[in-house]
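hey
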C-alpha cells in the first residue's frame, strides 16, 4: 500500500496529465453522427468491433430510411441485416437492434431511458455503450472504457487494471467527476493519434515525462 507522500505524488501526476490532455484535446467529442438519443444508441451498438468511420457510412443511409424506433421495430432481423452487413457481427446486431426498438416502444414510449442501469437492460447494450449514450445524449457524468481508453489510461498510470470494468472504477476515483465524460474523449483522441496499440509514438508524446509506460520501457 502506498504511503501518504506517494499518494500525493500520484494525485499531482494525474492532475498534470489531465491538464495536458485537456490542453491538446479540448472540445473533443464522439465521432459518431446522430440527431437523437435513439440514433446514438443504435450507432453505438453498431460500433462494437467496427470503426466509427464505417458506422457513419452505414448510418448516413440507415437513419434516412429508418429514423426512429418505430421504424426499426417493424423490421425483421433479416431485413435489417441487409443494411448493416458491412459493420461486422451484423446478425447479432440486427437482432439486438430490432428487439431494443420494440422494448423502447413498449416500455418507454419510444424514448431512450437515461439511467445507465436501464440502458444496460436493453439487448446489445453493455456498460460501455450505456456510458456513451448517457454521457453524449444526456450530458451525464460517465466514463466509457473502450479499447483506446483502456490502453491509454493503463499505460499512463491513471489506472492499473486488467479489465475494462476495473479500469472504469479506478478512473472514476482518479478523475474529478465533472471531467469524466471529457476525459473519456481526450483519452480516445490520444489513443488514436499518439498512444496507438502497436509502436506507440512515445517520441512525439507530450505526456512522456508523466507516463508510467514510457518511464518503465524507455520506448522511443
Amino acid at each position: 500500500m502506498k504511503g501518504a507522500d506517494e499518494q500525493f505524488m500520484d494525485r499531482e501526476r494525474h492532475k498534470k496529465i489531465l491538464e495536458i490532455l485537456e490542453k491538446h484535446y479540448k472540445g473533443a467529442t464522439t465521432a459518431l453522427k446522430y440527431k437523437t438519443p435513439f440514433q446514438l444508441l443504435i450507432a453505438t451498438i453498431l460500433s462494437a468491433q467496427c470503426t466509427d468511420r464505417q458506422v457513419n457510412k452505414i448510418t448516413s443511409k440507415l437513419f434516412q430510411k429508418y429514423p426512429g424506433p418505430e421504424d426499426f421495430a417493424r423490421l425483421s432481423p433479416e431485413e435489417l441485416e441487409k443494411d448493416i452487413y458491412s459493420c461486422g457481427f451484423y446478425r447479432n446486431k440486427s437482432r439486438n437492434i430490432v428487439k431494443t426498438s420494440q422494448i423502447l416502444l413498449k416500455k418507454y414510449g419510444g424514448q431512450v431511458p437515461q439511467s445507465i442501469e436501464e440502458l444496460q437492460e436493453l439487448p446489445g447494450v453493455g456498460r460501455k455503450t450505456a456510458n456513451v449514450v448517457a454521457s453524449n445524449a444526456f450530458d451525464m457524468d460517465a466514463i466509457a472504457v473502450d479499447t483506446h481508453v483502456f490502453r491509454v489510461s493503463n499505460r499512463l498510470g491513471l489506472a492499473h487494471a486488467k479489465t475494462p470494468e476495473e479500469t472504469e472504477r479506478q478512473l472514476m476515483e482518479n478523475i474529478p467527476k465533472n471531467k469524466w465524460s471529457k476525459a473519456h474523449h481526450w483519452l480516445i483522441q490520444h489513443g488514436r493519434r499518439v498512444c496507438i496499440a502497436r509502436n506507440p509514438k512515445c517520441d512525439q508524446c507530450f505526456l512522456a515525462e508523466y507516463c508510467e509506460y514510457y518511464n518503465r520501457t524507455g520506448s522511443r
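The chain has two domains: 4-28+143-217, 37-138. The chain has twelve helices and no strands.
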